[in-house]
Design goal:
The complex is a heterodimer of chains A (501) and B (454). Helix content of chain A is 23%, strand content 33%. In chain A, helix 1 crosses helix 4 and helix 4 crosses helix 6. Chain A is built from eight helices and 30 strands. Chain B is mainly β and 454 residues long. Chain B has a domain of 300 residues: YVTN repeat-like/Quinoprotein amine dehydrogenase (Methylamine Dehydrogenase, Chain H), CATH 2.130.10.10. In chain B, the strands form seven sheets. In chain B, strands 14-15-16-17-21 form a five-stranded mixed β-sheet, with no helix packed on it. Chain B has a four-stranded antiparallel β-sheet with strand order 1-29-28-27, with no helix packed on it. Chain B has a four-stranded antiparallel β-sheet with strand order 2-3-4-5, with no helix packed on it. The longest helix of chain B is centred in the C-terminal third of the chain and has 14 residues. The chains are: A alpha+beta (501), B mainly beta (454). Chain A: Keywords: Repeat, WD repeat. Chain A: This is WD repeat-containing protein wdr-5.3. Chain A: It comes from Caenorhabditis elegans. Chain A: GO terms for molecular function: dynein complex binding; microtubule plus-end binding.
Amino acid sequence: MNPERQETISPKNVPFQPVPTPNQQSLQSRMLESNQAVPDAFQKVAAWNHYNAVATPPIGVPQTARPPSNQSPHPNPPGYPYQSHQQQFHPLAIAFQQPFGLPQQVIYPPPPPGFTPHRVQVSPVGLLGPPGFFPQFAGSTTSQGNPSEVSVRTKSAEGTTGPIAPSITTKPTSTIQVAPPRDPVAPTTSSSGITKKPENGEFSLVKTISGHTKSVSVIKFSYCGKYLGTGSADKQIKVWNTVDMTYLQTLASHQLGINDFSWSSNSQFIASASDDTTVKIFDVISGACLRTMRGHTNYVFCCSFNPQSSLIASAGFDETVRVWDFKTGLCVKCIPAHSDPITSISYNHDGNTMATSSYDGCIRVWDAASGSCLKTLVDTDHAPVTFVCFSPNGKYLLSAQLDSSLKLWDPKKAKPLKYYNGHKNKKYCLFANMSVPLGKHIISGSEDGRILVWSIQTKQIVQILEGHTTPVLATDSHPTLNIIASGGLEPDNVIRIWRRN
Amino acid sequence: MVEILDRTYGAQFPEELECHLDLQNASANCCKFNRWGSIVAVGCTDGRVLIYDFMTRNIARTFSAHCLPVSCLSWSRDGRKLLTSSADNSIAMFDVLAGTLLHRIRFNSMVTFAMFHPRNDNKAIVLQVNKQPTVEQFSPRIQTVLANDTPGSSDESASCVSYDRKGKYIIAGTGKGKLLIYNAETLKCVAWCKQNTVQQIRQIIVPMKSRFIITNTQDRVIRTYELEDLLHQRGQMVEAKYKVLDMVNKAAWKNVCTDSDGLYVCGASTKAHSLYIWESNTGSLIKILHGNKGEALLDVQWHPTRPIILSIAQGTVSMWTQAHVENWSAFAPEFQELEENEKYIEKENEFDMEDEDADEDMTSKSQDAEDDIIDVVNVRPEDYLASSDEEDCNIMKPARNLESGPLWYIPVPLDIENADNDQRLPDDIRNLDNLLNPAWVASAKGYELSPKSK
């Protein structure tokens, strides 16, 4: 073979020397084409030729490489047999192109070593993992953007609107770190602004619970009122006994921080939403993780049991609502609900209707059975909506916006009925709730550390609870007793229990 | 749910076949929705009764009720009890939540119909083959026969029977086309009348919310009467207020059902898997739903609150639902879909640079909002009773934990066999390989999956 190649090369060299400029252009285009078009099988051949070509520079191969490329761009009738001839020596042509590229490879030695660790890292895992491993790896890669492993809910909204996790947002410098007061009865400020001791009919601090090592992101009483659940950025959900607020159980199976959780109607199970893109079901008494639902492609920001506790709805930063069957753990519905991350999801009292809120400023009401959209509620300010929930009778919707306002909506008329102001809410997704024992109140935390209580009917601030030194995201009221629970961000990390006299 | 919509989208009757219920190798014979449509009971030919959670379509309970086909099912008012009747000459009553058998009564003949009293789950009406209907009281055990003591027709036997909407009257249909109305307390005949036919009445249907009763007669005509009109009759012939029939094929009706408002009537054909849907007051045929050829229909049921029909043919339960029509107006407020072009008349100040009346509008709006009384706790009776003229609203208020009130759902147990062992890993492994699935990495590195220390 070698003598034949030499013979074919030498006679063509003479007639094509006078045209050097088109040679260079055609040579470059051919190299690009060959690089793009060569399949994997031929890449090995090219690599082999590459090594073979390295040994030939002393012979003066670069000079002879130019003539064969001259032949290809000429579609002459006598060129037709040349093309057939060239097809026979296709590997040879590739071989002769490699030496021309040799200087580039010599100039850039670092790139080839950069690829080797990637292969080494991937292939052993591929051998160990099942075929479906790669999508989960992609999910993990998404989580990689959050190296501090802080729950996304406990970060401010300024840095969390994008699909890629941002760096840690600097905490507000105005916050003064003050030790919590040792006096168990914290001073309270009434609507008149005068600091005074708690009177009859007002909430007062009765207990401070420590247990979480990072920000408390969610607090919820169970429907029977016996348990209090607290979720945190330390990847744990702790359950407390509400009779004496003693520790009961820790639910720890998530890989990243907790964003939300929901109690089942019989208070036996908890469904939790986390940054690790999974929804998990825990048995409250034993603390065991019974099921892990995978399917979301980004942070799961909120989840909710339906009143029958047969379905779990979850939503998050992938802008979809997924409905999971509690019995089997399968995803029975996937609704692309909003055009921005979804911040809250809530069922009404009979489980027929579902409400979602989003950073796009919309609140959408859905038919839970068919998954169709019934209505969209938008106010004129289009502020991002961070929370939405139905009233106990399913007739009204309470929403929280990032313009420091709470709104009570009539979903039938699609307009807000009442506005509640006085707190500060610019960055975080706060929880709000309606407290119905002994009067109808709306309770919400604030980013300045206070907890505000409004009267639903008059919209007046009934009481302001002070004691937290960091923003209060998580608040909840007991279903039957006059108890409020609240949790603070880092470095507070404590749960405060307030009771009305 | 319908009230949230500004206007109805799509038809209010089923239009297409959606799916079949998973019967798990059973052969269905009859089915029945509870009051809210959240649970459906399916009676099978082998005597079993399957209770479905209709939202998830999962089987929640299974009762081995009988050894022969189940002929009829009836729910109590609060949904906590289920009455089944069968060809094995017996009826059985079950506690649905506990899954236990409460009563079983044996008869001498096959039982073709059994129905709870609408207001009293201690009473039921039972119809056996070739016998007069009997009123059964379970505790204490009393049986009373409904005698046909009308003049000139003592030998006619009842072919169908039903309570009226509130359980005040019992309506019986005879084999010669007569209707007898009894007082449910005294069991005395208070009225009787004739239809304009002497053929057998096969079925009497009482819609949940209307004042009508509907008869399915063997002459293939479905007649609608007003109950108040029948109460004044003493043997006269009464003309039907509305009547529907198949003008083309003259199909006979195996079973008839209506929606809860009584606006639509659905007839199940005896010869083919075809469901005919009429508008009740106009008698116009609006839809024919065709199933598989060669299948004979056994039962048909309309959902209490949704345009859904369950039909049973060849042992399979088919579900017919509305065609999905996307409601684009729901995604954007102030967006309205037009059926045809409309001439737009702009408002007075619509395009003004400055709104001169803005202050007044805002003032009036805020005043309107102030006057509204916000009630966030009380649920209106029609929301959970599907009717607004009930007298025991407080007793029937649903509770979330099912300790009181009606059984509006069945708690779902977790399928523990499929639960995954998602155990906690050592801290060093988790911190080191956060990107990967911890279980595989731990297995590859030879670490043992240690259970949680606490």
